[in-house]
Amino acid sequence: MSPRWEPNPNIHRGRTVVHTLHAHLVFTPKYRHGPFTDEILRRCEEVMRSVCADFETELVEFNGERDHVHLLVHYPPKVSISKLVGSLKGVSARRLRQEYPDHIRRYLWGAHFWSPSYFAASCGGTPLSVIKEYIEQQKRPS
């Protein structure tokens, strides 16, 4: 008897698409000052999970240190990473400033919480070398 085939839980199906898209995101606060405590990191994760839910994405993993946060998000093709990042940073900045005003003010001044830049990398799935080899093998014979 052959082993039972188990569907991959990371592969999602829509009406016209089958996808498994993941991105690793890293955000740093303005001036790279370290405003994050364990409590603020927990609250930041809660806020970011809520934003991801609004975008129909999944925050798979979240962690951080005093001066940056890492996120692993699983998102559908209809979601623009730049729009997701804008909402994640905008909503979290607003909420954290509202909820921890004195603490945040000690580390950050002015109207900005996050640095305007961010790191984003696609991840998961097959290694690029395997995909490249597969595509090369698809060439039509001469």
Automatic annotation (TrEMBL):
What organism does the record attribute this protein to? Streptomyces finlayi
Query: Which InterPro entries has this protein been placed in?
Result: Transposase_17 (IPR002686), Transposase_17_sf (IPR036515)
Q: Which GO terms describe its molecular function?
A: DNA binding; transposase activity
Biological process terms from the Gene Ontology for this record are: DNA transposition
The UniProt entry, under Pfam families, shows: Y1_Tnp
Q: What taxonomic lineage is listed for the species of origin? A: Bacteria, Bacillati, Actinomycetota, Actinomycetes, Kitasatosporales
Highest taxon of the source? Bacteria
Record protein name field: IS200/IS605 family transposase
Please report the stretch or stretches of sequence annotated as the Transposase IS200-like domain: 18-138
